Amino acid sequence: KEINVINSKTKELVELDKRHFIHPTSAPKAAAEDGPSIIFSEGNGIYVNNMDGESYIDGMSMLWNVNIGHGQKELAEAANEQMTKIAYSSAFKGFSNEPAIKLAEKLASLAPGDLNAVFFTSGGSESNDTAFKLSRFYWKLKGKAEKKKIIGMQSGYHGVTQAAQSATGIPATHEFAGSSVEGFYHATPHLTNCELGDKNDPNYENSIRALIEKEGADTVAAVIIEPVQGAGGVNMPPEGYLEAVRKLCDEFNILFIADEVICGFGRTGKMFGIENWNVQPDFMSIAKGITSGYSQLGGVMLSDEIRDTIVNYDGVMAHGFTYSGHPTACAVALKNIEIIERDGLVENTKEMEKEMQKGLAYLEEKHDIVRNCRTLGLLAAFEVYNPETGEHLDPSLQAAATIVDECFDRKLILRHIGDFRVAIAPPLVISKQEIEKMIQIIDESITAFKNTL
Ligand code: PLP
């Protein structure tokens, strides 16, 4: 999509961007030749503006993170107040700060079960790398240093640092620079019966259980799982699956890491995604919605057993980021969580889930190419199929990308995942009327795509 160049300032920025800005998770050639399709300047609620003041609906909360919506001045004030007090304070070796302490306590009060302690990071990838290291450290302290391997899921997404990328089950991330590290394995997700021990299931050898049996439970540290897979396709776990994995982990003495980087902080209609099921994780990775994107922050929450084991260690735990427990980021997170609770945004998300379901059902009924609609809270997707064959539409049609482009032309930002999936994840402040508006634009965009066939 070429930018709609109106004013000369935008034009100048596009040229500078093309020359100097290497964009994350983007096609470098297209970025250098075509430049950005939009330069954002400001936002309010579910809306974001480009440099020319044109307004778009942010139907993805940017990168599934702006949970409380744009333009929440209270967060800017919280940052300003904290930053004015002190630039930054280290949390290494005996140093601490008030916002980080208060946030740690707040998170402990919100997190399910006995996840009562937190290690702070600056984002999701760092959180997952930390969870892997802490799980290995835990087993070492327990006298089981051989327990090092990590099992992730195919289509699972855990970030792009070397370990997080290695845990990610999306082949493109492994192919990039050939930088995967050893000790990471991937199972097919959602094989409930296999995880419960059904060896007659034809998929058995792709299950977590089969991997554990093959590698030996005494070499496996942890399983990492997103309650709902996000970037891999908004894939909902079938009933009983997460419980089956928890049971399996207990059976083999393996830690359960819930990656809540997308699901956390209200996205699924509960404060944390895992709370939709009867499952207690040993670790929980958090980021994104913890500050709604207003500041960079992540963390890993630890169960009492893990925390108590670690705090018995008398040496130095040689793992920490300069910005672990950054006071400004923590002050922003505290205000963000206060707003989520004060404004009932988890409850609103549960309410709006019904509107999203209604809207998706309408699209499915009206358009024979739309199927497989799903939403949990405001984490939603639909897929495009060939109605005659019942298979996904031919990848050469680039159906999902085209529908997303058509939406963009109509001032709605969505994201396609692969050739046939479209994800929808608006800010949790969205209203019924705003969801209806989004559905109307998607409806028109699907019609426009069908007209090209
Ligand atoms: N885990 C999940 C489930 C994610 O969706 C993401 C990012 O999209 C990450 C981890 C990585 O987070 P970050 O990009 O903040 O490093």
From TrEMBL:
Keywords: Aminotransferase, Pyridoxal phosphate, Transferase. Gene3D superfamilies: Aspartate Aminotransferase, domain 1, Type I PLP-dependent aspartate aminotransferase-like (Major domain). The keyword Cell membrane does not apply. It comes from the Bacteria. Transmembrane segments: none annotated. It holds the Pfam family Aminotran_3. One of its GO terms (molecular function) is transaminase activity. Its EC number is 2.6.1.-. CDD domains: OAT_like. It is an enzyme of class 2 (transferase). Belongs to the class-III pyridoxal-phosphate-dependent aminotransferase family. This is Putrescine aminotransferase. It comes from Virgibacillus alimentarius. The lineage of its organism: Bacteria, Bacillati, Bacillota, Bacilli, Bacillales.
